[in-house]
Amino acid sequence: MKKKYATETKQISNIERKEIEEIKNTILKKKYWKQNLIYLRILLTVWFICSFGFGILMAEYLNNFYLGGFPLGFWFAQQGSIYIFVILIFIYVYLMNKLDEKYNLKE
Amino acid sequence: MDSQFWTYLLVGITFTIYIVIAIWSRAQSTKEFYIAGAGINPIINGMATAADWMSAASFLSMAGLISVLGYGGSQYLMGWTGGYVLLALCLAPYLRKFGKFTVPDFIGERYYSSNARLIALICAIFISFTYVVGQMKGVGVAFSRFLEIPFENGVIIGIGIVFFYAVLGGMKGITYTQVAQYCVLIFAFTVPAIYLSLQATGNPIPQLGFGSKTMDGVYLLEKLNQLSVDLGFEKYTDVNRTTLINVFFITAALMFGTAGLPHVIVRFFTVPKVRDARISAGWALLFISILYTTAPAVAAFAKVNLINTVSNARYADVPDWFKNWENTGLLQFDDKNQDGVIQYVADSQINELTVDPDIMVLANPEIANLPAWVVGLIVAGGLAAALSTAAGLLLVISTSISHDLLKKNLNPKISEKGELRAARIAIAVAVVAAGLAGLNPPGFVAEVVALAFGLAASSFFPAIILGIFDKRMNKEGAISGMIVGILFTAIYIFYFKPQLGGPGTPDNYLFGISPEGIGTIGMFINFIIAIIVSRFTKPTPERIKQLVENIRYPK
What H or E segment, with its residue span, contains residue A47? Predict the structure, then answer.
């Protein structure tokens, strides 16, 4: 009688453990997605400011400053923004690869 | 040896390479034919994407446009690169995880509707076809101008080459040929640029030479500004306030359009993993940026050279190349005051010289006295750019027909072998159709090429983004958003393009936005309609929510 009860509790706790595991997984995944969205927000803000901001809306003002022979606004519009785009992608790749590992989601 | 010889030699060598690669990389299955077996190394895919992306327009026309527009040309530079950030961050990894073959595939599954798939399929074919006809025309022009082969024969040679490797190799063959084409086109673009930069400033790196001092101690851009002012033009680097809003909207339309173009998106289905899709977008943009940061430098060098050579020069003394290009009609000199001297100024009453922007790249080697083989290189590069883009687009058209239409809609029971055969037939028909249209381009095609971006931005981009980031987006919302977005954009374009017979004039532009930039507004309309409609209609089924959940995580 006592023995049977013991196996029963063991079974229950197995099921429970599975459930807990699942809930933990969902919470972790939610956290992962939230962190991803934070990265996106920050990087896309930089993306917008460097191209539409420095390269277009503020270009006229920035042209009062110089980078070597380049008026600064013009440089952002025709060179700088493109370099920044490339860097942004590589930063995102780096951050996401670390995040994948942290949450054990690496393929 | 003259430039004609070099052109034949270099074009011959590069074409042989493409054919050899095609034979070596035949596709055996539909998976290989559609997405190269999803086994492409991310750096290789980055290179192929770069070639896929950079068309005849990027290679031949963009630098010229920038040299005419000055600061205004920035819209093309930022617009055609910034979209890759969106692709890498918001689209490519999730679509790779989804792991199917095409963009209509994603739309159809995510919005659980074969109608949505059908609409996406029609948009994909329409966008790709208008785009590909422009490439075919570019091939014909390159042949006829440099090899003195009639335009029609040039197009036919181009069709033949694309036909051979696209039909045989599908995505696999196209990918490896695109890698070769990238190498050819980037070499062909940068070599003359390095020469120009050395000549003008002594700095071999065009991106730096562009901001350096010329031999007489003045900064190149300052000199260019001064020359422009002297001739009555605006300063080259100055921001024109009246068109700034339009620059903003055109840049945005090109960026969002890039991120919505099916032939670019599909390239990210070809890599093995989600992380490969992310890094692959980075490599693609890195390879693209080599050309895109060189082009504005070429634009500035070429403009200084042109002004120095022709402005106030006696017509009797102009170099040979001037007369050669006059014969092609790309340069026109009309001696209005009969003084035998070329007046190249802003005032159209006095100006005597009309310059086609294309000449800035095409005639560069001659204007700058570069060796004869550089001319051949530019022709081979221009052809590589046109052919690689054409092949990528044709594949989208054929996959849409054999996979999305035939397999998913008409005949789901078709065998693997049958589908592969259908894909080959579809691409063959598409190549021939595009070639025929390239021979007699309907007047509107050239105009519509640039507008394909607006159409992609206002249809696909919101549908895909919402599909990934908004679980509540349902089929009713997505379909109505796509239809309203693309209709609004298309109607605005047709209304305001006199070349398309539209009655609109620039004075009536909505907020001063030209048809090239209206895709941005179309995109916002799409987003708004989709979100509103989705909140008032049936919620997304549970299994679709699961699907969205699933594509958000790499594992």
Answer: helix A2-48
